[in-house]
From TrEMBL:
Reaction catalysed by this enzyme: tungstate(in) + ATP + H2O = tungstate(out) + ADP + phosphate + H(+)
Family designation: Belongs to the ABC transporter superfamily. Sulfate/tungstate importer (TC 3.A.1.6) family.
Function: Part of the ABC transporter complex WtpABC involved in molybdate/tungstate import. Responsible for energy coupling to the transport system.
Subunit structure: The complex is composed of two ATP-binding proteins (WtpC), two transmembrane proteins (WtpB) and a solute-binding protein (WtpA).
Organism placement in taxonomy: Archaea, Methanobacteriati, Methanobacteriota, Stenosarchaea group, Halobacteria
Chief site of localization: membrane
Organism from which the protein derives: Natrinema pallidum DSM 3751
Compartments where found: Cell membrane
SUPFAM superfamilies: MOP-like, P-loop containing nucleoside triphosphate hydrolases
UniProt protein name: Molybdate/tungstate import ATP-binding protein WtpC
GO CC terms in record: ATP-binding cassette (ABC) transporter complex
Amino acid sequence: MTELRLEGVSKVYGANGTGTSALEGVDITVRDGEFFTLVGPSGCGKTTTLRTIAGFEAPTDGTIRFDGREMGDVPPERRDVGVVFQSYALFPHMSVAENVGYGLRFREPPDGVTVDDRVADLLELVDLEGMGDRDPDQLSGGQRQRVALARALAPAPDLLLLDEPMSALDAQLRESLRRQVSRIQSELGITTVYVTHDQAEALAISDRVAVMNGGRIEQVGRPQEVYREPATRFVAEFVGDNNVFEGDVRGRNGEYSRIAIDGETFSLPSIPDGADRVTFCVRPGALSQAADHNRLPVTVETSEFLGETVRVNGRWNGRRVVLQLPAVPESAELTVGFAPDDAHVIDLDRD
Ligand SMILES: Nc1ncnc2c1ncn2[C@@H]1O[C@H](COP(=O)(O)OP(=O)(O)OP(=O)(O)O)[C@@H](O)[C@H]1O
């Protein structure tokens, strides 16, 4: 099994590196057996990162190592990497079994088993036993992606790379495939890098997540860390709904700091001396009408019924505010508050 390391990896497309800068100094360590996800908006460099790991693109700068071994001169077919792309990319004129067996064209099956046995094992692993004789066009989208996964896993690669493998599927199928991928990954214990623009999917499926933006890594952490303790404003706003505020630090009040925003005073957990400005965030679920601290009046603009809760979009002094309430509010004006400990400080500045 394999540890993957990216050290200062940059990529500039175009002749002589004069075109688009897609990656800027990306440092990532993916631990042996880990399910690691690259998440970020369209164009942030996720696919480019995956393609440089696979060897389909050469980095302009930096180093990629598998278990300490530099991959610079190693071509893709000698990297022991299984890749699954967004589109199914199955061969339409080959049966399901032939598609899976195609993964073994460069390599003998592991442990001396026959190709047929290996293909049968893999079809069982992806819950497609008995479907080997079908053509790809006799399968659903989810089943085709499972064939693609079986094909990638056939030669027992050291590393599995998945580039938005579920994005062409409907929501229900996506969730069921997500559970299957998760089960298979932990059964095999294979080091996996997964790419998605869907932050909810990233949080649900990963051991750790790297949030990318503009070719850079904004934060790497466990899903709970990235969600509860975003390191940057971008992460706070990209991962789940959030409210980000900026205020002036106005001294202490016991164990709390006093913060002024538009002349109103708020209490936050104690802020280190020397900071004049603070950027902090409060999750929608932490803003409640019952809270008696840090109250702010909100003008409701839209309400979205989500089943268990209602997402309310509103404004406070011109700022966008998102609330998560148990029911659609009865009035267009309401006051909510938050407990100081529910605020997370993102950034501190001096004037
Ligand atoms: N072959 C290429 N030639 C030139 N520029 C490219 C090429 N591939 C990607 N880019 C550019 O590099 C940047 C990163 O693209 P990349 O595909 O890695 O992003 P992404 O995060 O995977 O986006 P998406 O989620 O839309 O697939 C973008 O600005 C893109 O336009």
